[in-house]
Amino acid sequence: MRIESLQTFYQREMAAILADPDLAEAHAALLLALELGSARAAQRDAGGNWYANPWVKTAILAGFRSTHTALVPGWPSPAYDRTAFPPRSFSLADGVRMVPGGSSVRRGSFLGAGVVIMPPAYVNVGAFVDEGTMVDSHALVGSCAQIGKRVHLSAAAQVGGVLEPAGAVPVVVEDDAFVGGLVGLFEGVIVRRRAVLAPGVVLSASTRIYDLVNGRELTREVPEGAVVVPGTRPASGAYAKAAGLSLAAPCIVKYRDGGTDAATTLEEALR
Ligand SMILES: CC(C)(COP(=O)(O)OP(=O)(O)OC[C@H]1O[C@@H](n2cnc3c(N)ncnc32)[C@H](O)[C@@H]1OP(=O)(O)O)[C@@H](O)C(=O)NCCC(=O)NCCS
After folding, report:
1. Distance (Å) of CA 187 to CA 15, 80, 203, 206
2. At residue 97, what are phi and psi to the nearest 5 degrees?
């Protein structure tokens, strides 16, 4: 099924699909299109704005709603999941090095050549992980998350999934960004190219990011090349003041320079 007709099918039949789906052919075409990268849950336009493709996200949801939980064949220990999204398998020709040991990549996700996945890691349906990206141990690439080229997702980085609502932009990490250990990105946050997030930075849609270089506050978006580290700010109100409380306040301490490149350079041989 060609992408245009698949898209038309889902857009036209949306209500009927969700009510009483007979999706086998369209679902198989959807998984293949996602895995080939020809259909994506979200895309960037020429102006750099990210927009969701609601038909893709609705199609994924239809898969969940139209299938039941069953034994997953071939898995080392008994596992039970929706039949719509079994684990993907790979061949040498895919150019993906998946180290054995508890990682799982769900069908309907795209992995570019040269992606490395260290166990245990999980890549969910609708995720797009572009060429040369490292997904380190305990990292999560949530449903529909869009990860660019040569990104480093350090150990335990959590990129949340944004499947519903269908029109919501998922979490995006653009090319050459460095996501430190234990970083959490949720609710459609966008990390622009070459940005660096130090270990422990957590960003959701309402987290205020303090740009110490330009004297401004930002939400939802980390600018290109920004270096963000965890910080704190006084919590507002008399009670908080009396109790000496602070809130998390991620700060942009600088924009990427040679020192940052040195601090984030990774051993090529590991790729
Ligand atoms: C974020 C990072 C890349 C910045 O490196 P850099 O560009 O060389 O930054 P600098 O060392 O010049 O630091 C700039 C400022 O940020 C502060 N800073 C740097 N890292 C920080 C952190 N993790 N938390 C709090 N503050 C931090 C520095 O103290 C300095 O502040 P100052 O100007 O007031 O002295 C680096 O500090 C870092 O955290 N590397 C970790 C890499 C990593 O996670 N590796 C895991 C691989 S699996």
Report:
1. 26, 28, 8, 9
2. -100, 110
Q: Is 200 in the pocket of ligand 1 (CB under 6 A)?
A: no
- Closest residue by CA, ligand 1 atom 16: 253
| pLDDT single digits (tens) 9-30 | 887 776 676 665 567 888 899 9
pLDDT one-digit tens code per residue, 149-198? 999 999 999 999 988 888 899 999 999 999 999 999 999 999 999 999 99
Please name which of 71, 66, 68, 72 lies closest in space to residue 25, comparing C-alpha atoms: 66
**Rounded mean pLDDT, 217-223:** 98
- Tell me if the bond preceding 120 is cis, omega within 30° of 0: yes
Whole-structure pTM value:
0.87
Question: Ligand 1 centre and the CA of 198: distance in Å?
Answer: 6
The average confidence (pLDDT) of the chain is 91
259 lines ligand 1 (CB under 6 A): yes
Residue that has been written with the tokens 């990268």 in this structure: 37
Whether ligand 1 lies within 6 angstroms of the CB of 197 is answered as: no
Instruction: Quote the CA–CA distance of 218 and 229 in Å, as a whole number.
Output: 14
Tell me which residue has tokens 């890549």.
Answer: 123
Buried b / exposed e over 228-256, threshold 16 CB at 10 Å, is bbbbeeeeeeeeeeeeeeeeeebbbbbbb
Q: Which domains does the chain have, with CATH numbers?
A: 84-257 (2.160.10.10)
CA distance between the termini of the chain: 35
Does 261 contact ligand 1 (Cβ within 6 A)? Answer: no
